[in-house]
Amino acid sequence: MMRNRLRVYYGPDDAQSAPATADPNRVRISLGEILPLLAEAVESKRTWLKDFEDEELNISLDLYECILAYQHCRRPVA
Description:
Distance between the termini: 77 Å
Radius of gyration: 20 Å
Shape: elongated
Strand content: under 5%
């Protein structure tokens, strides 16, 4: 009887699939994929979030402008 062998898939084997300047300590992820997880972590007051408070994020200019506009709209009226 032949045994099934499971292997972990790490992505394409060829080095041409990733840019030469890619940082192995960085991951690209869509906002739609990460936002629900972060929102749940904030709502649940997960302590591990404090470990990443000083992390920098690269976001598009239009998203940044939307966030600034939203922040302006949220300000309490004096």
